[in-house]
């Protein structure tokens, strides 16, 4: 029996499944669609199960598969089956078909829904992403580096600005002594008058 081959989480889900097979006895397409929403997606489904799930024939079923670009998979016994994702797509197409009487425009409608969902901004997720992961750590490190660079630049600017306004008298004794010593070493060494006179005589003799 088909009902025995499917797994349901509760009796209500089984009743909902059985209810989808009553379309020919007066149940409206909207009610069938609602029952499908309440059913658990099977992990695997055979073609015969899906034909009864949607109340359609083989020709329509294969048209739907071609429209959705769905290809059946094979189990170890080489029997064809459809995955839960396949059933989810077929369920969506079935609801669309029940509402409009045609499958035309379904793919375009699905793409519009996908784009709309991607465009929705979730503040909580945005905040969580902003303060988590490598991106947040990289931003924190870059901020620390920038702060250190600004502090270093400030120290250098202040150092040279203060130094430019200091005179020798503003220096403490040890630093003033060091400056005087540097100045003395940079000046030509004093020479005796005799040495200077000898240099003059040597220069005069060589110029004759």
From TrEMBL:
Protein name from the UniProt record: Uncharacterized protein
């Amino acid at each position: 029996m088909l009902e025995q081959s499917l797994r349901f989480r509760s009796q209500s889900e089984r009743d909902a499944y059985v209810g989808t097979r009553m379309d020919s006895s007066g149940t409206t397409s909207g009610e069938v669609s609602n029952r499908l929403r309440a059913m658990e997606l099977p992990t695997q489904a055979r073609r015969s199960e899906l034909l009864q799930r949607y109340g359609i024939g083989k020709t329509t079923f294969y048209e739907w598969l071609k429209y959705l670009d769905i290809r059946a998979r094979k189990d170890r016994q080489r029997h064809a089956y459809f995955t839960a994702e396949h059933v989810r797509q077929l369920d969506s197409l079935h609801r669309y078909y029940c509402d409009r009487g045609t499958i035309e425009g379904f793919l375009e409608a699905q793409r519009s829904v996908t784009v709309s969902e991607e465009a929705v901004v979730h503040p909580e997720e945005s905040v969580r992403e902003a303060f988590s992961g490598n991106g947040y750590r990289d931003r924190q490190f870059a901020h620390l580096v920038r702060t250190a660079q600004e502090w270093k630049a400030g120290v250098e600017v202040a150092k040279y600005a203060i130094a430019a306004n200091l005179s020798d008298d503003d220096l403490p004794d040890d630093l003033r002594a060091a400056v005087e010593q540097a100045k003395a070493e940079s000046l030509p060494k004093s020479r005796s008058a005799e040495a200077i006179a000898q240099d003059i005589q040597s220069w005069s003799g060589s110029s004759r």
